[in-house]
TrEMBL record:
Name recorded for this polypeptide: DNA-binding response regulator
InterPro entries documented for this protein: CheY-like_superfamily, OmpR/PhoB-type_DNA-bd, Sig_transdc_resp-reg_C-effctor, Sig_transdc_resp-reg_receiver, WalR-like, WH-like_DNA-bd_sf
DNA-binding region per UniProt: 125-233
Single GO BP term: regulation of DNA-templated transcription
Molecular-function GO term, any one: phosphorelay response regulator activity
Modified residues (4-aspartylphosphate): D51
Domain Response regulatory stretches: 2-116
Amino acid sequence: MRILLIDDEKKLVEALKQLFVENHFAVDLAHDGVEGLELARNDVYDVLIVDVMLPHLSGYELVEILRKEGSSVPILLLTAKDGVDDRVYGLDHGADDYLVKPFATSELLARVRALTRRKGNVVGTEKIGVGDLQLDLVTRQVTCGQTVMQLTAKEFLLLELFLRHEGQVLPKEVLLDRVWGYEALLDTNAVEIYVHFLRKKLLAAKANVATEKATLHIPMIETVRGVGYVLKAL
Protein backbone atom coordinates (compact mmCIF):
# COMPACT_ATOMS: atom_id res chain seq x y z
CA MET A 1 0.00 0.00 0.00
CA ARG A 2 1.19 3.50 -0.74
CA ILE A 3 1.27 6.53 1.57
CA LEU A 4 1.94 10.20 0.85
CA LEU A 5 3.48 11.86 3.92
CA ILE A 6 3.39 15.67 3.89
CA ASP A 7 5.30 17.36 6.73
CA ASP A 8 8.04 19.98 6.92
CA GLU A 9 9.79 18.41 9.95
CA LYS A 10 12.41 16.54 7.95
CA LYS A 11 13.78 14.42 10.81
CA LEU A 12 10.29 13.30 11.74
CA VAL A 13 9.44 12.57 8.12
CA GLU A 14 12.51 10.39 7.63
CA ALA A 15 11.81 8.49 10.84
CA LEU A 16 8.19 7.89 9.84
CA LYS A 17 9.20 6.82 6.36
CA GLN A 18 11.48 4.18 7.86
CA LEU A 19 8.67 3.05 10.16
CA PHE A 20 6.23 2.59 7.28
CA VAL A 21 8.78 0.88 5.02
CA GLU A 22 9.50 -1.62 7.81
CA ASN A 23 5.77 -2.29 7.94
CA HIS A 24 5.55 -2.96 4.19
CA PHE A 25 4.20 0.39 3.00
CA ALA A 26 5.58 2.37 0.06
CA VAL A 27 6.06 6.02 1.01
CA ASP A 28 6.38 9.27 -0.95
CA LEU A 29 7.43 12.47 0.82
CA ALA A 30 6.58 16.15 0.46
CA HIS A 31 7.85 18.98 2.67
CA ASP A 32 5.36 21.74 1.88
CA GLY A 33 1.69 22.06 1.02
CA VAL A 34 2.11 22.96 -2.64
CA GLU A 35 4.43 20.03 -3.35
CA GLY A 36 2.11 17.71 -1.44
CA LEU A 37 -0.96 18.88 -3.34
CA GLU A 38 0.79 18.32 -6.67
CA LEU A 39 1.78 14.76 -5.73
CA ALA A 40 -1.70 13.97 -4.41
CA ARG A 41 -3.26 15.19 -7.65
CA ASN A 42 -0.94 13.31 -9.98
CA ASP A 43 -0.50 9.94 -8.33
CA VAL A 44 -2.60 7.30 -6.59
CA TYR A 45 -2.30 6.82 -2.82
CA ASP A 46 -4.07 4.65 -0.29
CA VAL A 47 -3.67 7.20 2.54
CA LEU A 48 -2.42 10.79 2.91
CA ILE A 49 -0.79 11.85 6.19
CA VAL A 50 -0.80 15.66 6.29
CA ASP A 51 0.64 18.04 8.85
CA VAL A 52 -1.59 21.04 9.54
CA MET A 53 1.16 23.69 9.73
CA LEU A 54 2.83 23.52 6.32
CA PRO A 55 4.74 26.15 4.32
CA HIS A 56 2.95 27.76 1.34
CA LEU A 57 -0.34 25.89 1.82
CA SER A 58 -1.74 24.67 5.14
CA GLY A 59 -2.91 21.13 5.71
CA TYR A 60 -6.47 22.39 6.15
CA GLU A 61 -6.31 24.17 2.77
CA LEU A 62 -4.77 21.15 1.06
CA VAL A 63 -7.51 18.83 2.33
CA GLU A 64 -10.25 21.26 1.37
CA ILE A 65 -8.89 21.63 -2.19
CA LEU A 66 -8.65 17.86 -2.70
CA ARG A 67 -12.19 17.29 -1.46
CA LYS A 68 -13.58 20.04 -3.69
CA GLU A 69 -11.82 18.38 -6.63
CA GLY A 70 -13.57 15.10 -5.82
CA SER A 71 -10.75 13.15 -4.19
CA SER A 72 -11.93 10.49 -1.74
CA VAL A 73 -8.50 9.31 -0.58
CA PRO A 74 -8.42 8.78 3.22
CA ILE A 75 -6.59 11.65 4.96
CA LEU A 76 -5.06 11.72 8.44
CA LEU A 77 -4.13 15.16 9.80
CA LEU A 78 -1.15 15.59 12.14
CA THR A 79 -0.93 18.62 14.40
CA ALA A 80 0.49 19.99 17.63
CA LYS A 81 -2.88 21.58 18.36
CA ASP A 82 -5.03 19.47 20.67
CA GLY A 83 -8.05 21.71 21.11
CA VAL A 84 -11.49 20.31 20.32
CA ASP A 85 -12.20 23.22 17.95
CA ASP A 86 -9.05 22.43 15.96
CA ARG A 87 -10.03 18.77 15.57
CA VAL A 88 -13.56 19.68 14.58
CA TYR A 89 -12.28 22.22 12.06
CA GLY A 90 -10.04 19.65 10.38
CA LEU A 91 -12.73 16.98 10.23
CA ASP A 92 -15.32 19.44 8.93
CA HIS A 93 -12.97 20.40 6.08
CA GLY A 94 -12.66 16.83 4.84
CA ALA A 95 -10.10 14.99 6.95
CA ASP A 96 -10.97 11.43 8.00
CA ASP A 97 -8.93 11.33 11.19
CA TYR A 98 -6.79 13.55 13.42
CA LEU A 99 -3.70 12.71 15.48
CA VAL A 100 -2.02 15.10 17.93
CA LYS A 101 1.77 15.36 18.18
CA PRO A 102 3.62 13.83 19.93
CA PHE A 103 2.10 10.44 19.26
CA ALA A 104 3.02 6.79 19.64
CA THR A 105 4.11 5.24 16.37
CA SER A 106 2.00 2.18 17.13
CA GLU A 107 -1.08 4.40 17.27
CA LEU A 108 -0.18 6.06 13.97
CA LEU A 109 0.15 2.66 12.30
CA ALA A 110 -3.18 1.56 13.78
CA ARG A 111 -4.91 4.75 12.54
CA VAL A 112 -3.52 4.27 9.03
CA ARG A 113 -4.65 0.64 8.92
CA ALA A 114 -8.09 1.67 10.15
CA LEU A 115 -8.37 4.27 7.38
CA THR A 116 -7.59 1.69 4.70
CA ARG A 117 -10.35 -0.53 6.08
CA ARG A 118 -12.89 2.28 5.78
CA LYS A 119 -12.64 2.43 2.00
CA GLY A 120 -15.38 -0.16 1.65
CA ASN A 121 -13.55 -2.78 -0.41
CA VAL A 122 -11.51 -4.24 2.43
CA VAL A 123 -12.95 -7.49 3.76
CA GLY A 124 -10.36 -7.78 6.51
CA THR A 125 -6.66 -7.32 6.98
CA GLU A 126 -6.00 -10.25 4.62
CA LYS A 127 -8.64 -9.85 1.91
CA ILE A 128 -9.95 -7.18 -0.44
CA GLY A 129 -12.81 -7.43 -2.85
CA VAL A 130 -15.63 -5.87 -4.83
CA GLY A 131 -18.91 -7.74 -5.18
CA ASP A 132 -18.32 -11.44 -5.84
CA LEU A 133 -14.66 -10.91 -6.75
CA GLN A 134 -12.35 -11.49 -3.78
CA LEU A 135 -8.55 -11.39 -3.49
CA ASP A 136 -6.69 -13.01 -0.58
CA LEU A 137 -3.43 -11.18 0.13
CA VAL A 138 -1.97 -14.06 2.16
CA THR A 139 -2.76 -17.10 0.00
CA ARG A 140 -2.54 -15.03 -3.21
CA GLN A 141 -5.80 -16.63 -4.33
CA VAL A 142 -8.46 -14.83 -6.34
CA THR A 143 -12.03 -16.12 -6.35
CA CYS A 144 -15.00 -15.16 -8.48
CA GLY A 145 -17.99 -16.59 -6.66
CA GLN A 146 -16.87 -20.16 -5.97
CA THR A 147 -14.48 -20.26 -8.94
CA VAL A 148 -10.74 -19.85 -8.33
CA MET A 149 -9.08 -17.65 -10.96
CA GLN A 150 -5.58 -18.47 -12.17
CA LEU A 151 -3.57 -15.24 -12.45
CA THR A 152 0.07 -14.51 -13.17
CA ALA A 153 2.06 -12.45 -10.64
CA LYS A 154 1.63 -9.26 -12.67
CA GLU A 155 -2.09 -9.88 -13.22
CA PHE A 156 -2.50 -10.34 -9.47
CA LEU A 157 -0.73 -7.04 -8.70
CA LEU A 158 -2.75 -5.23 -11.35
CA LEU A 159 -6.05 -6.59 -10.03
CA GLU A 160 -5.06 -5.73 -6.45
CA LEU A 161 -4.44 -2.13 -7.47
CA PHE A 162 -7.78 -1.91 -9.28
CA LEU A 163 -9.65 -3.40 -6.29
CA ARG A 164 -8.03 -0.99 -3.84
CA HIS A 165 -9.15 1.92 -6.03
CA GLU A 166 -12.49 0.66 -7.32
CA GLY A 167 -14.35 3.41 -9.18
CA GLN A 168 -11.24 5.59 -9.50
CA VAL A 169 -9.64 6.23 -12.88
CA LEU A 170 -6.05 5.00 -12.83
CA PRO A 171 -3.76 6.56 -15.46
CA LYS A 172 -1.62 4.19 -17.50
CA GLU A 173 1.54 5.81 -16.12
CA VAL A 174 0.46 5.08 -12.55
CA LEU A 175 -0.26 1.44 -13.37
CA LEU A 176 3.14 1.08 -15.04
CA ASP A 177 4.92 2.60 -12.04
CA ARG A 178 3.04 0.66 -9.36
CA VAL A 179 3.01 -2.77 -11.03
CA TRP A 180 6.12 -2.83 -13.24
CA GLY A 181 8.40 -0.12 -11.83
CA TYR A 182 11.70 0.02 -13.69
CA GLU A 183 10.57 -2.92 -15.83
CA ALA A 184 8.13 -0.55 -17.55
CA LEU A 185 11.05 0.78 -19.57
CA LEU A 186 11.33 -2.62 -21.20
CA ASP A 187 7.75 -2.78 -22.50
CA THR A 188 5.57 0.33 -22.64
CA ASN A 189 2.64 -1.74 -23.95
CA ALA A 190 2.53 -3.89 -20.82
CA VAL A 191 -0.55 -2.21 -19.35
CA GLU A 192 -2.71 -2.68 -22.46
CA ILE A 193 -1.61 -6.31 -22.81
CA TYR A 194 -2.23 -7.27 -19.19
CA VAL A 195 -5.53 -5.37 -18.92
CA HIS A 196 -6.66 -7.36 -21.98
CA PHE A 197 -5.62 -10.64 -20.31
CA LEU A 198 -7.31 -9.67 -17.05
CA ARG A 199 -10.56 -8.70 -18.78
CA LYS A 200 -10.69 -12.06 -20.58
CA LYS A 201 -10.17 -13.94 -17.32
CA LEU A 202 -12.84 -11.89 -15.52
CA LEU A 203 -15.33 -12.56 -18.31
CA ALA A 204 -14.47 -16.26 -18.36
CA ALA A 205 -14.83 -16.51 -14.58
CA LYS A 206 -18.17 -14.72 -14.74
CA ALA A 207 -19.41 -17.17 -17.38
CA ASN A 208 -18.21 -20.15 -15.32
CA VAL A 209 -20.11 -19.07 -12.21
CA ALA A 210 -23.25 -17.86 -13.98
CA THR A 211 -25.23 -20.79 -12.60
CA GLU A 212 -24.16 -20.25 -8.97
CA LYS A 213 -26.85 -17.69 -8.25
CA ALA A 214 -29.33 -15.51 -10.07
CA THR A 215 -27.36 -12.28 -9.83
CA LEU A 216 -23.58 -12.04 -9.81
CA HIS A 217 -21.78 -8.83 -9.00
CA ILE A 218 -18.50 -9.02 -10.91
CA PRO A 219 -16.63 -5.76 -11.52
CA MET A 220 -15.18 -5.07 -14.95
CA ILE A 221 -12.32 -2.92 -16.20
CA GLU A 222 -13.39 -0.07 -18.46
CA THR A 223 -11.15 2.07 -20.66
CA VAL A 224 -11.16 5.82 -20.13
CA ARG A 225 -9.93 6.98 -23.51
CA GLY A 226 -6.78 9.06 -23.38
CA VAL A 227 -6.38 8.60 -19.62
CA GLY A 228 -6.31 5.03 -18.35
CA TYR A 229 -8.64 2.46 -16.84
CA VAL A 230 -11.24 2.14 -14.09
CA LEU A 231 -12.67 -0.90 -12.30
CA LYS A 232 -16.45 -0.57 -11.97
CA ALA A 233 -18.83 -2.77 -10.03
CA LEU A 234 -21.62 -3.95 -12.35
